[in-house]
Amino acid sequence: MSDDPVSVLILAGGRSRRMGLDKVWLRLEGQPLVERAARRVLPLAREVLFSSNSPEPFVTLQGSLGVPARVVADEFQGMGPLAGLHAGLKAAGHDLLLVLAADMPFVDLALLRYMLALAQSHDAVVPRVPRGPSGSLAWEPLHALYRHICLPAVERHLRAGDRRAYGFLPDVRTRAVLGSEIALFEAGMTSFFNLNTPADWLQGQRLAGPAG
User: Fold this and answer.
1) pTM for the whole thing?
2) N- to C-terminal Cα distance for the chain?
3) CA–CA dist 165, 189 (Å, integer)
4) Can you name the residues that pair with 10 across neighbouring β-strands?
5) Domains of the chain by range and CATH?
């Protein structure tokens, strides 16, 4: 694992259209998803940032984590998770930023520690995971590590109107984390399971177990 201090950015500002309500406050195993995400990675964090344009609901959570925590708002409104990454990179107190979507409730600390070790010699460390019926590989930029040096590339893409969260990766030293590496830590890609729809929510409760 890298010795670099780590800032954590929890992306919690999505509109949750497919879920039909603000999913980050849904409770899984007794905790809101956004709190679960933050507490799961606290062993790695020197500070926690929450990407949201509505800071009020986070006040109690910020004060309960035991590390510095605050909400950061998007400078580029309406540009999706890439705008959240931009805000997080600008606000982070440390060079290395761990970015996680709040709706990924099953992240694996051992896998994240492996990714931190890879970050010693790269600007971005981003998994490549199978997507869709074909199983073709796609970047998972919302479960990834970025150094501050990525900020200019992120901003260039935002100013050009490119809101793809992975669009800037060819512009920085990116290390892909492949399925064979992920399989050393988990077999089912559970870390990358995210809760977008009511059906996903039911599946998430099953994965969490009887107390979910």
Assistant:
1) 0.92
2) 31
3) 20
4) 50, 100
5) 6-208 (3.90.550.10)
